[in-house]
Amino acid sequence: MTKPPRKSPKPLLGEADALLRSRPRRRRDPDQPSLPLDLMPDRIEPCLALLKPKPPKGDDWVYEVKWDGYRLSVHVGPTGIRILTRGGHDWTDRFPAIQQAALWLPVGTAILDGEAVVLDEQGRPDFGLLQQSLGGRGGKKSSSDAIFMAFDLLYFDGHDLRNSELSMRRHLLEDLVPAGEQGDIRLSEEIEADGDLLLASACEHGLEGIIAKRRSAPYSSGRLGDWVKIKCVQSDSFVIVGYERSTVARAGIGRLLLAARKSKTLVYVGGVGTGFNERNAHELRENLDGLITSTPAAVVDRKGAIFVKPKLIAEIEYRAWTGDGKLRHASYKGLREEQDNAAVYDLDEQRLSSSSR
What we know:
- The chain has six helices and 18 strands.
- The protein is an alpha+beta fold.
């Protein structure tokens, strides 16, 4: 016959309803330092994905959808919420729904890394819709349509997680933002699949591409190769150095003239004449007419070209490059915000990346 358990000689709670504590085995050495909490960083430079033509292979790589929006970090602090752009600008007031959702997170302090997106009717991120919800480039509107897709956790309840492996950071993130929830802060879920098959599926569903990340890697600011992006359709940022007029439609813009960086100069890489609608063409023309100059920022051999100061950055979707270094089948997606700190396509960087494949 099983004996009943022995009655505990001590109550679980003391006289003042305080938890009983075990006694230390020995007195603490006063010269031994305590383990203090990490100070919460004011800002963290983001980890950036390196462009590759094919998904990497191996058990150390995990995959996610590539989100087409604005990179943000959401800071949950003791005094409130801050939402910062990739360039460190405070856009808290421009994303009130994300701010409110961050207030409801079950955490005292945290820094979440992710992307603000607006989804279309098929549930796909649409950069144009995101820009429209914010009032266009230079607009001051607040977007209640944007949601935040969280894909990393850099700071959590007093602890800096950047030196921890991705797998641990993701474990904590998934506790904070559970998979499948449909609020204004959602989890960018990891997908267990073959990289090539996942990329094909993403392209079939009209997504921009996928991201591959090393499970064992810490969080490193910059573009070091621990994160890799593989795109269905190429989409990059280029400087607008001029335009050609149209007499038939689209607020008189027939073609934007684009340039990429090479060392410290700008190199003409062709133009784009599609992707405009009446609304964004009118906005473009207003911006461009205030930047007209007689000094071209890049060498452009186009009759009738109107040159502008290289102040505006356009997001351009394209299929390939021609043999003479021009964009092929280019389409305009929208203007990048200055505060977004978007990286202009760098010809030297891409050459080095290609030579290391």
